[in-house]
Specification:
The chain is α/β, with parallel strands linked by helices and 449 residues long. The chain has three domains: 123 residues, Methylthiotransferase, N-terminal domain (Rossmann fold, 3-Layer(aba) Sandwich); 230 residues, Alpha-Beta Horseshoe (pyruvate-formate lyase- activating enzyme); 68 residues, Nucleic acid-binding proteins (OB fold (Dihydrolipoamide Acetyltransferase, E2P)). Helices cover 35% and strands 21% of the residues. The protein contains 14 helices and 19 strands. The strands form five sheets. A six-stranded parallel beta sheet has the order 2-1-3-4-5-6, sandwiched between helices. A five-stranded mixed barrel has the order 15-16-17-19-18. Strands 7-10-11 form a three-stranded parallel beta sheet, sandwiched between helices. The two termini are 43 Å apart. The structure holds S-adenosyl-L-homocysteine, iron/sulfur cluster and FE3-S4 cluster (F3S).
Length: 449
């Protein structure tokens, strides 16, 4: 009988993509996936270390698995992802019911570790910093419409607050040939959208010796795809967004009108302490350049409040930046000290109450902006790529605009994977409501409903 596996995923898109790769590897080795955690012989928790709240959630989950493991000792419980890399064996010492610890660069070692556990009845740890391989065939994608494609791994930026470079290692880009091969396969099997992933996609290609940079890669993807009509990417570091890339955004029809550009803070003093490598003035100029080239672009961001040494005035600079730029979405976080990072030992660590108050203040302002941005969509018509049936209402389907706004509207399952024109009739702070329109190329599809 084949063993069944179940994967729980925390963290960013890179982790979601890794979970698909892990599922692909296990399937390749004869395991089958199950949707029922109680049914699984192998359970993997793919973890995130980026903030304390993320780690605490995962530790709580691990704690709860203690009883499950006691009831079913033959169950293999594995921890992979960023926390596995950062905590290593320490995690096993704290939670002896964990059987496997697998590092972020060692995905393809998983079947070997499971065998070791089964055969020797012993736990197994592999968090070697030597990446095992970066070419894994992703055969277990969650969606049949949109696909994630890793174009690079790791990060070299060492922002002073961030644990990612320590848990994901140095930047390693995949060759353009193998990226294109993967994307062409997706194109042939009917995918409509790809999202190119990396911690800092702008430095793609610096290490391949191919003389293909990120903008060149976008041109290639745009040119070599037919079914795929949309290209997204994340994340870009503001310090290296060359004019060539901005031009590509404006010139290549498939690149979506959405740019995630983490600002992190609005005070030059804090940006310097964060080791971000740009000033607020530079950031404003960059936003202007993007909007000059693509006027309807939706700019989204990440912001941290309560960084060590952040005074009330510094915080006001962040609020001012948010007011000036008018982001479509701002992901706002309280600074959380991470192990090994320089910021964790900086002077001027702030009390939680201060961080919390600033977070609420920032959220209030950003929410208001997001609500207004979304409200401005009401009455306009947008092309929406239909992705799924609304799990809370099966008469509704949902998809996204080029600007990455989620739109819910009445429609049937058959429309999944199709582009339809939708008139926006309502809005909230996270999503829009719409009605399909009958005009133009939509007419045929509309009749099906
Ligand atoms: N590579 C991406 C994002 C990585 S982590 C980038 O450079 O933008 C995602 C977001 O988490 C970051 O943009 C940052 O806003 C936030 N973050 C990272 N470390 C953090 C910390 N120690 N405390 C609070 N937020 C943090
Ligand atoms: Fe972290 Fe900075 Fe790298 Fe992003 S660019 S992953 S914030 S170190
Ligand atoms: Fe992503 Fe969290 Fe790791 S944000 S890279 S899963 S620390």
């Amino acid at each position: 009988m084949t063993e069944k596996f179940y994967i729980i995923t925390h963290g960013c898109q890179m982790n979601k993509c890794d979970s698909e790769l892990l599922a692909s590897i296990l399937t390749e080795h004869g395991y089958t996936s199950t949707d029922e955690v109680d049914d699984a012989d192998v359970i993997l928790i793919n973890t995130c270390s980026v903030r304390d709240t993320a780690e605490r959630k995962i530790l709580g989950r691990l704690e709860r698995f203690k009883a499950v493991k006691q009831e079913r000792p033959e169950l293999i419980l594995g921890v992979c992802g960023c926390m596995a890399q950062s905590w290593g064996k320490e995690l096993m010492d704290k939670y002896p019911h964990v059987d496997i610890i697998l590092g972020t660069g060692r995905l393809s070692e998983l079947p070997r570790l499971i065998r070791k556990c089964r055969e020797l009845g012993k736990s197994a740890v592999d968090i070697s910093e030597e990446p095992s391989e970066i070419e894994i065939d992703n055969t277990m994608r969650e969606s049949s419409v949109t696909a994630w494609v890793n174009i690079m791994y790791g990060c070299n930026n060492f922002c002073s607050y961030c644990i990612v470079p320590y848990v994901r290692g140095r930047e390693r880009s995949r060759s353009s040939g193998s990226i294109l091969q993967e994307i062409k396969k997706l194109d042939e099997s009917g995918y409509r959208e790809v999202t190119l992933l990396g911690q800092n996609v702008n430095s793609y290609g610096l290490d391949t010796g191919e003389n293909v940079d990120f903008a060149d890669l976008l041109v290639m993807v745009d040119r070599e795809t037919h079914n795929i009509k949309r290209i997204r990417f994340t994340t870009s570091h503001p310090k290296d967004v060359p004019q060539k890339l901005i031009n590509a955004l404006g010139d290549l029809p498939k690149i979506c009108n959405n740019f995630h550009l983490p600002a992190q803070a609005g005070s030059n003093k804090i940006l310097k302490l964060m080791n971000r490598g740009y000033t607020r003035e530079y950031y404003f100029k960059l936003v202007d350049k993007l909007r000059d080239k693509v006027p309807d672009i939706a700019i989204t961001t990440d912001l941290i409040v309560g960084f060590p040494g952040e005074t009330e005035e510094d915080f006001q600079d962040t609020l001012d930046l948010v007011q000036r730029v008018q982001f479509d979405v701002g992901f706002c976080f309280r600074y959380s000290p991470r192990r090994d990072t320089p910021a964790a030992t900086m002077e001027g660590q702030l009390p939680e109450e201060v961080k919390m108050r600033r977070l609420h203040e920032l959220l209030e302002i950003q929410d208001e902006i997001s609500v207004a941005k979304n409200a401005a969509y009401v009455g306009t018509v947008h092309e929406v790529l239909v992705e799924k049936v609304n799990p809370r209402d099966d008469l509704q389907i949902s998809g996204r605009t080029s600007t990455n706004k989620i739109v819910f509207f009445n429609g049937s399952e058959e429309l999944i994977g199709h582009f339809v024109n939708v008139r926006i009739v309502g809005s909230g702070n996270w999503s829009l409501r719409g009605e399909m329109i009958k005009e133009g190329e939509n007419a045929d599809l509309y009749e099906k409903v």
